[in-house]
Amino acid sequence: MKEPPDITLNFPQSQKRRQAAALQNEIAACLAEFAPEGESAARTAWIFPRGFTGFQGHFPGHPVCPGVCVIAAQLAAAGRLANAALELVEIENAKFMWPIFPERKIDGQIKIAAVEKKFWRVWAELKRGERRIAKLQLLARAEGDVL
After folding, report:
1. 75 is in which domain, residue-wise?
2. What percent of the chain shows pLDDT beyond 90?
3. pTM of the model
4. What tens digit of pLDDT does each residue of 32-57 get?
5. Catalytic residues, which ones?
6. Which DSSP string do the residues of 81-140 spell out, in sequence order?
7. Is residue 53 part of a domain?
């Protein structure tokens, strides 16, 4: 089977890091509510403003939050529970059932569990009212930890 082409942009590494950090900060600012439920779970609420970078070009005239931003948002919330900045190792399961539009409150439930020494399993479910938006299972590690 032929491998897909590499579609990474060729920016200097420092510029990539700055852009990624800026987007992570912007995503973290969209966390409107964070209510821990013990040490390993929390209720969350997210509101992505119309000017959110993730909406640019996705899709012109009909902005929808990209799945990668939804995943990054859940890692940010999980990191608050783990007391560490987390980075994605693997998307074990991801189901997106309904789009996230600008300015709409999305409620979430997130749970984490330590796996081995350096890893965290993250479960997240997002809803708007009774409508399920997304359900995720992720494997993450603390930033900077070597595999």
Report:
1. 31-142
2. 76
3. 0.87
4. 999 999 999 999 999 999 999 999 98
5. 58
6. HHTS-EEEEEEEEEEE-S---TT--EEEEEEEEEETTTEEEEEEEEEETTEEEEEEEEEE
7. yes
